[in-house]
Amino acid sequence: MNDRTLLLAGNWKMNHDHLEAISAVQKLAWALEDAKLDDSHCEVVVVPPFTDIRSVQTLVQGDKLWLKYGAQDVSQHAPGAHTGEIAASFLSRLGCSYVVIGHSERRADNHETNEVVATKIKAALSAELTPILCVGESLEQRQEKSHVEFTLGQMDESLAGFDAADLSGLVIAYEPVWAIGTGETATAADAAEMASAIRVRLGEKYGDALAQTTRILYGGSVKADNVAEIVASADVDGALVGGASLSGPDFAALCKAAVAK
Ligand code: PEP
User: Three-state SS for 159?
Assistant: First the structure.
């Protein structure tokens, strides 16, 4: 048993326009109602596209929903002449609690390096957003058995320049690239192995207090029928969920299954 609150975050990726977002969040809230979840059980977070966030904010605040929301990325820059970018301060003004940083799709599609990821974490922290830092290996690295070394290296470089005080509240999502959107899920033992390695490395670099309070999520084809086994591992504190978070009822079922573990 530990004091870390279970975190279930739904990354919608580039799905749902702002009208669909309202419907998805309403359905999620309705489907969660009978479970009477509160902060003592878990946090449930939706991570919609930027263009949906204002609508989600209006709904969550207007209906006083027990749900949090965040963004899928953030600019490393302060507001100014950066066409197409979204500043961290804009996201916090919209009531975002979290921001996903370094998702493997952004690393692949937008050539985001660990150095860029580190600057985005800095920007997020300065706006009091909680970063969800994504790390994880490719299939090739897993087959070569270099997955732990690679993933820890990615984390070390993405957190370069920070100290323990900067990183309190940080969330790390272990997402093996080969398991994202493929239907291939890492086994609970695979997720547990990496979460434990991440926690040990955090302890070595930043001390035991940070290691014991940092939440480590697993992501990669998590669904209602496999989440309980995954979050049963002592070091896995929740899930970052893609496809199974798009439908409100499906994501609610997943959250209930995780809490009931
Ligand atoms: C993700 O996008 O972070 C993810 C884990 O996706 P999926 O659950 O669809 O594999």
Answer: coil
Nearest-atom index, ligand 1, CA of 173: 3
Give the residue whose CA is nearest to atom 7 of ligand 1: 242
Give the model's pLDDT for residue 1: 66
Asked if residues 251 and 28 have their Cβ atoms less than 8 Å apart, the reply is yes
d(CA 237, CA 120): 23
The whole-model pTM stands at 0.97
Question: Whole-angstrom Cα distance, residue 9 to residue 217?
Answer: 9
The finding on whether 180 has its CB within 6 A of some atom of ligand 1 is: yes
Per the annotation, the verdict on 175 as an active-site residue is yes
Give the residue, by CA position, lying nearest to ligand 1 atom 6: 242
Query: From ligand 1's centre to the CA of 182, what distance in Å?
Result: 9
pLDDT, tens digit, 9 for 90 and up, residues 184-211: 888 999 999 999 999 999 999 999 999 9
Distances (CA, A) of 204 to 55, 172, 200: 42, 16, 6
CA pair distance 113, 125, nearest whole angstrom: 18
Which of 171, 175, 184, 255 maximizes ligand 1 atoms within 8 Å of its Cβ, making it the mutation to test the pocket? Answer: 175
Question: How many angstroms separate the CA atoms of 53 and 47, rounded?
Answer: 8
Q: Which two tokens stand for residue 239?
A: 């899930």
Task: Establish whether 149 is a catalytic residue.
Answer: no
